[in-house]
Amino acid sequence: MRTVLLTGFEPFDQDPVNPSWEAARLLDGCMIDEDVMIVARELPCAFATAGECLVRLIDEWRPVMVIATGLAPGRSEISMERVAININDARIPDNLGEQPVDTAVVVGGPAAYFSTLPIKAMVKAVREAGIAASVSQTAGTFVCNQVFYRMQHVLAGTSARSGFIHVPSEALMALPSLVEGLRIAVCAAWSTSVDVLEVGGQVS
Ligand code: PCA
């Protein structure tokens, strides 16, 4: 059995729940192909531990694909992140009270990594199911971007594709739609080897 590792985050910044984990955990064990199963796990929302936890999970499961998800409060669409940048700049403290400002995720690492997922095909598939989705040009500079960058860094040069999806709050997207949207995004990522050419950009 091959696995797709799907992660969500624990709650942060006084929110009682984090829909990224609420949705991901409902997809744990879901088959997306004959011998490909989703393994869902929760990550801590802390700079010191989130990346380590993800790297351990990758070592443990040797997944064929990794998709990390997190909450982007205020966004109303499921957003496929295009790029992870090598900077931590936390507007708020993380769950361990740490608030790094202008530090590197990986000292000496490249400025950025692109997602290796077919983000346009994923957006298209989710939209075709009537669920709001878009490409996002920034995953921010908090714990989600840090995990996204670490993941791209450890998987660079391997055959495992990986990327990050930000999800809306439950006030802006009901959980069943989010779960279905994520499931479709994972399936599209798995079944698409060459991304489609569709406009996903923004003017500033
Ligand atoms: N969202 C935060 C961190 C954890 C989460 O779910 C972020 O976007 O960085």
TrEMBL record:
<feature type="active site">
    <location>
        <position position="81"/>
    </location>
</feature>
<dbReference type="InterPro" id="IPR000816">
    <property type="entry name" value="Peptidase_C15"/>
</dbReference>
<comment type="subunit">
    <text>Homotetramer.</text>
</comment>
<keyword id="KW-0378">Hydrolase</keyword>
<dbReference type="Pfam" id="PF01470">
    <property type="entry name" value="Peptidase_C15"/>
</dbReference>
<protein>
    <recommendedName>
        <fullName>Pyrrolidone-carboxylate peptidase</fullName>
        <ecNumber>3.4.19.3</ecNumber>
    </recommendedName>
</protein>
<feature type="active site">
    <location>
        <position position="144"/>
    </location>
</feature>
<keyword id="KW-0645">Protease</keyword>
<feature type="active site">
    <location>
        <position position="166"/>
    </location>
</feature>
<dbReference type="InterPro" id="IPR033694">
    <property type="entry name" value="PGPEP1_Cys_AS"/>
</dbReference>
<dbReference type="InterPro" id="IPR016125">
    <property type="entry name" value="Peptidase_C15-like"/>
</dbReference>
<keyword id="KW-0963">Cytoplasm</keyword>
<dbReference type="GO" id="GO:0016920">
    <property type="term" value="F:pyroglutamyl-peptidase activity"/>
</dbReference>
<dbReference type="InterPro" id="IPR029762">
    <property type="entry name" value="PGP-I_bact-type"/>
</dbReference>
<dbReference type="InterPro" id="IPR033693">
    <property type="entry name" value="PGPEP1_Glu_AS"/>
</dbReference>
<comment type="function">
    <text>Removes 5-oxoproline from various penultimate amino acid residues except L-proline.</text>
</comment>
<comment type="similarity">
    <text>Belongs to the peptidase C15 family.</text>
</comment>
<dbReference type="InterPro" id="IPR036440">
    <property type="entry name" value="Peptidase_C15-like_sf"/>
</dbReference>
<dbReference type="GO" id="GO:0006508">
    <property type="term" value="P:proteolysis"/>
</dbReference>
<keyword id="KW-0788">Thiol protease</keyword>
<dbReference type="GO" id="GO:0005829">
    <property type="term" value="C:cytosol"/>
</dbReference>
